[in-house]
Amino acid sequence: MWVKQTCRIEFTTKAGLKYQLRGLHSYEAKKSVHQTVQTCKVELPLSVLFRNNDILERVKLIDKIKEGDRVKIYLGYNGSNNKEFEGFIKRINPKMPLEIELEDEMYMLRKVRLKKNFKRAFVSDVIQFILDETFKQTGVRFEKYKEIPKVEVFNFWMNESNGLAPLQDLEDKYLLNSFLTEIDGKKVLYCGLMYGLSKKRVVFILNRNTISLDDLKYNGKGDRTFKVEIRHVDNTGHEKKHEFGDAKGEVQKILLEGNWTDAAIKHYADGVIQGLQSAGYKGGFTTFLLPNVEPADIADITDPQFPNRSGDYYVSTVTTTFGSGARRKPEIEIRL
Predict the structure, then answer these.
(1) Helix (H) or strand (E) holding 319
(2) What's the whole-model pTM score?
(3) Which of 61, 125, 196, 280 is close enough to 192 for a disulfide, judged by CB 3.0 to 4.6 Å?
(4) Residue 243: helix, strand or coil by DSSP?
(5) What fold does the segment set 5-105 form as a domain?
(6) Which is it for strands 298-302 and 201-205: parallel, antiparallel or unpaired?
(7) Distances (CA, A) of 6 to 14, 25, 289, 301, 328
(8) Domain assignments of the chain as residue spans, ordered by start
(9) pLDDT in tens, 92-143
């Protein structure tokens, strides 16, 4: 069956004007559970034909779009396009072809100014404050992830910081990752432990609906076992030590600060051990646009040549390119 790559790009300016394009030079987007802000780079022609009230008009694109304009990008085959990226123009690079750098809607948190001191609060309360202020100051609303770990913070300062700064503090001090995702059709700000969110299951049969396996490596378990030693210092300075895993295994030492519950610490340690000792595939492989796969999805991988390597793997990062070809590169880190 012959297929043709198709796309649609929608611009909405700050003044509310809307423009639409149906072509581009290149597109590359990187989405990952490891980054708070998802990014995208698009190359476009310097001059384009815009449709305005059924009239085609050739204009210089750089004269029509500005930093902060909203952008939606749809990609697909034979006119059946799915939304790939939604966000805002972060930067316009006036080169040939024209290059625009985009960030997802977390871009709006850069525009927010937060001033508050939480003397004692749960992380969930901090996230709710950030979301409320984002809506109040920008009109952009996100839902809060419903299962944020019950971690307490003390003297958590926000002194005229933007909305991204406290999320970075939560990652640095409490090992809680934050990123925007979609759950049940709603835009949700996830805040939780690494690999704590699992979304849909996507089926891959190696060498059938994959293009290249060059960056996919298989690690055997062998005889390696691990013991995780966690030194937990809460916000009062009280210290407690925890040990998980094989008492005679290789030791991994971790420092956790803040008021973590014992259940949250165990959940974190289990994830660390699982990532260290699980046998299976790690790395990336290349596919077509379909099936659609996103960070936090579960890759159900079947290997017809080595059936024992088949299983469920956590997708941490997905890089999508479009232009001379249409490709996705999911990256997997742990076997579930």
Answers:
(1) strand 311-322
(2) 0.86
(3) 196
(4) strand
(5) Pnp Oxidase; Chain A (2.30.110)
(6) parallel
(7) 27, 12, 12, 28, 16
(8) 5-105, 112-192, 201-335
(9) 999 889 999 999 999 999 999 999 999 989 999 999 999 999 999 999 999 9
